[in-house]
Structure formats: C-alpha cells, structure tokens
Design brief:
The chain is an alpha/beta fold. It has a single domain, classed as 3-Layer(aba) Sandwich (Rossmann fold), CATH 3.40.50.1820. Helices cover about 35% and strands about 20% of the residues. An eight-stranded mixed sheet has the order 1-2-4-3-5-6-9-10, sandwiched between helices. The chain has a two-stranded antiparallel sheet with strand order 7-8. Strand 7 and strand 8 form a beta hairpin. The N and C termini lie far apart (about 45 Å).
C-alpha cells in the first residue's frame, strides 16, 4: 500500500501538498491541504508525533479551511538541530517562520500536547497574527520534577531508537505514548507508516529525535502566567481519561484565558485520533464561528 493510499484511507481521499520552509539554519517540512483563498489554520503536533497526526481531522476541515501542518524540528521529515536545540523558543521560532512563509495573514493555531505549549506561547507573543487558538490536551504547568527527571535521564545521549530489519517490522512496533484504545486501524497504519525511515539498508527506525526528551524539557517551565495575555477566542479540548491534562489543569487553563471555552471528549491524551469525527466537527464549528468574532 502506498503512502498516498494510506493517507487517503483516513482523509476521505483528500491528499496534501508538501512544502519546505527555511527556519534559521534548519529546513522544516510542512503538509498543506485546501485552497489558497480559504482562511488558514496551522496545526502543530505533539512530542514524538509528525504532521500526519492531523490526517483524521482533515475531512471535517477541508474544504473551507486551508491547513498547514509542520513537522516540528527533530520530527517527521524536518531536520534535526546539531547540537540538539529543543527549547520552547526554538520550536516557536520555527512555527513563526512557517507562518511568515506559508500563512502571512491572521491564522488560527491548533496545538496538541507539546504543540499546544508552542501555540499558546505564540498566541501570547504574536497577538496580531493569531485570530483563534485551539489547545488539545496540552499541559501548561510543569511536570512533576522527580518523574520528569527520571524519564529524561533514561533518554540522555540517545537520539536514535531501536533499529528494525524491515519497514513492516518497524511499523508493527509503533505504539501511542500514552496508549490510546479505540484508534481505527487505518489511522494507526497511516501514522506508523509516516513515523519510520530507513537510515541505512536494513536499518529501519523512528524519525523522532529522542534528544527532545532532554533533562531540561522545553525549558519553558510553567506557562500559566502567560495565559492571560492570550486575547483571541480559544477552545480548550481534552480527553476525559487523560492523565496529561487533569480536570483541574483543564479548568485552570480555561479560566486563565479571557475568551476561552472548554470541551471534553471520551478517550485519553490522543482522543483526537480515537474520536476524530466528533473532535473534527467541534474544531470546524469553532473555526467557522471566528468569522463573526472581532
């Protein structure tokens, strides 16, 4: 099965274009769906993901919206910084470069998990460029320091993961972290296919640079203090069973952003994959509502 066939099975046949943006010294890869004349939403995936993470939402958003989804540095087809540089400011600067190159007018930012931290940062800093914001299961507070330090210490010095002899073996080993029951098989197959690469003959591995999991994290710390500076309409979305964004965290974020509303869906941290129909409809309704909001 080809790459396009896997994508089409998830998007209802809607295939993206591909674009490259120079961000500082790095080349950042982006997927682009929709018509140039439509309003633009920029979709930012989470830690360990890639731009195709958004494929399941495409049928709800296109046509009507133009979607730009970058592979964050160290993810997907984008370049890896040398030495590793994955501070929140680095990630936000890359997305800012994508905005300048592919979406120069006011846009809606949509971020999942770590991508939500990046988009929240940009929405607070670039208020003139952001007309709306969607945060999906994104934690703004610090993780528990002891747990984070123990996990990241186990990743220290490791940039490549395990190697597999065949693409099929690598794709079969693909897992969601944290696990997410109920993701359709076609979605799993699509995401796994785009998550792996052959680094050398007979050496298949995941595209994700594990240096993202450095001991200092993204260096942004607790972002709660910047939420009040986000002035655009904001939709805060979460999975009811997620341990990444607990109910108190979700409620605190929604209360801190002046024009925020919240929605909770079944599922965990990757609820957008397991319940793409309902999530896509909610995102589309929010996006379309922005035409009437000053």
């Amino acid at each position: 099965m080809t790459s396009d066939t896997r994508v089409a099975a998830v998007t209802g046949g809607i295939l993206p274009g591909s674009a490259w943006v120079r961000a500082g010294s790095l080349d950042v890869h982006c997927l682009v769906w929709g018509d140039a004349g439509d309003p633009t939403a920029v979709l930012v995936h989470g830690n360990g993901g890639h731009a195709h993470w958004w494929d399941p939402l495409v049928p709800a958003l296109v046509p009507g919206w133009r979607l730009v989804a970058p592979d964050l540095r160290g993810h997907g087809e984008s370049a890896w910084p040398e030495p590793p540089a994955y501070r929140l400011g680095d990630l936000a600067a890359d997305v800012d470069a994508v905005l300048d190159a592919l979406a120069p007018g006011p846009v809606v930012l949509v971020g999942h998990s770590m991508g939500g931290r990046v988009t929240a940062w940009l929405a607070a800093a670039r208020r003139d460029r952001v007309r709306g914001l969607v945060l999906m299961d994104s934690r703004m507070r610090d993780l528990h320091p002891e747990a984070a330090a123990a996990w990241r210490a186990s990743m220290a010095g490791k940039r490549h993961g395990r190697y597999y002899q065949t693409r099929a073996e690598a794709e079969a080993a693909f897992r969601f972290v944290p696990d997410e029951p109920g993701v359709p098989a076609a979605v799993v197959a699509d995401l796994a296919h785009h998550a792996v690469v052959e680094r050398m003959p007979g050496a298949w591995t995941y595209r994700f640079d594990r240096a993202v999991l450095g001991a200092e994290g993204d260096g942004g710390g607790d972002l709660s203090g910047l939420l009040g500076r986000i002035q655009c309409p904001t939709l805060v979305m979460a999975g009811a069973e997620s341990w990444v964004m607990h109910a108190d965290e979700r409620e605190a974020i929604t209360a801190a952003i002046p024009r925020a509303t919240g929605r909770v869906f079944p599922g965990g941290h990757h609820f957008l994959l397991a319940h793409a129909g309902a999530v896509g409809a909610a995102v589309r309704a929010f996006l379309d509502s922005l035409s009437d909001v000053p």
